[in-house]
Design brief:
Substrate binds at residues 32, 56, 78, 140. Belongs to the shikimate kinase family. By secondary structure, this protein is an alpha/beta fold. The chain contains eight helices and five strands. The chain has helices at residues 13-24, 31-39, 43-50, 52-66, 86-93, 103-110, 126-144, 161-168, and strands at 2-6, 27-30, 72-75, 95-99, 149-151. Strands 2-3-1-4-5 form a five-stranded parallel beta sheet. It is globular, with a radius of gyration of 15 Å.
Length: 170
């Protein structure tokens, strides 16, 4: 089985995915890290040099590439489910889990990381981050809510029972 983690930047997709993969004996893939290694550029540099539309195409290609195999957890980019047919693809090829993190928590986690996150680079302070994150969350939520499972209270250290049950029933 392939498990796709979707959610906003800062929701904990990478942190949870790494730990949960280890607990399940699965391989872990972070799409952003994978893209950076394939293209030899950081996500912000690739975003700037290629533009957002080309970056989204690269993201789609990468999603299909790392979905070849089994027993893997894939932490997607925050925008991955929102472009092309990526959400339908993930739902057809595995279990999609939405890590639904409160906006206030996202803002705390994202504050100070604007340089590493291309969409946040224009934000100069916490107020601008809050406004941008809230708007982005509202735009992306309809895509995220298409996931098979939505988790609101989750910790990297404890494997969610919903995930264990879903894996056992496949």
């Amino acid at each position: 089985m392939i498990v796709y983690l979707v959610g906003m930047p800062g929701a904990g997709k990478t942190s949870c995915g790494m730990v949960w993969a280890r607990q399940l004996g699965y391989k872990f893939y972070d799409m952003d890290v994978f893209i950076e290694s394939l293209h030899g550029q950081s996500i912000p540099a690739l975003f700037e040099s290629a533009g957002e539309s080309r970056f989204r195409e690269i993201e789609k290609e990468t999603l299909r590439l790392i979905s070849q195999g089994n027993k893997r957890i894939i932490a997607t980019g925050g925008g991955t489910p929102c472009f092309f047919d990526n959400m339908a693809f993930m739902k057809a090829h595995g279990l999609v889990i939405f890590l639904d993190c409160p906006v206030d928590t996202l803002i705390q986690r994202l504050h100070g990381s604007q340089e590493q996150r291309p969409l946040l680079q224009h934000c100069r302070n916490e107020e601008e981050i809050r406004k941008f994150v809230q708007e982005l969350y509202e735009q992306r939520r309809p895509f995220y809510e298409q996931a098979h499972i939505s988790l609101q209270n989750y910790e990297p250290q404890s494997l969610p029972q919903a995930l264990v049950s879903a894996i056992q029933h496949t």
